[in-house]
Amino acid sequence: xxxxxxxxxxxxxxxxxxxxxxxxxxxxxxxxxxxxxxxxxxxxxxxxxxxxxxxxxxxxxxxxxxxxxxxxxxxxxxxxxxxxxxxxxxxxxxxxxxxxxxxxxxxxxxxxxxxxxxxxxxxxxxxxxxxxxxxxxxxxxxxxxxxxxxxxxxxxxxxxxxxxxxxxxxxxxxxxxxxxxxxxxxxxxxxxxxxxxxxxxxxxxxxxxxxxxxxxxxxx
Length: 220
What we know:
The structure is a single chain. By secondary structure, the protein is an alpha+beta fold. The chain has one domain. It is built from 5 helices and 9 strands; from the N terminus they run αααβββββββββαα. The strands form 2 sheets. Strands 1-4-5-6-8-9 form a 6-stranded antiparallel beta sheet. The model has no long low-confidence stretch (mean pLDDT about 85).
């Protein structure tokens, strides 16, 4: 008695079904993997920076205010150079000190969630590239009272997007710790900012408040 096999038509139908299922599921699997990688890298960088600032202040016998009072320089660039050299490089694994030549380490522009594009933000900027591939773009104000940190998880790509590749943190004189931009806002304000029509600056605060998970309707 012969063994009955599949006909060519049956085989083609089966392969077609497999192809349809793969086309429907693989993109979702890739997206979920990208989200997981982003969350892990964001949490890792947040922890690294928090520990770096804590170590810098403890070793110099002060609180976070020390970070902004350790230099008598009135020149903002000199202040930035000393700040990075003393409070960042000794405490995190920096593989490239980009200084003010930021294009050595990343692209030339950022993209908001609403797809508008901007060039470099702020006045005096200083960049370093970490071993985990994260680019830290520090922006110092002229009063030396705070610093905004643009955390670019996808370092050298062009048009990296807020809320997906770029998240905004800052440190402030008189406050201990590192904060996501928008952390003081209520849930509705964070959600309105972190959607396709918003600019995405507050997405980090939204994710942190959501127990380090993306909300279901997150604009990936």
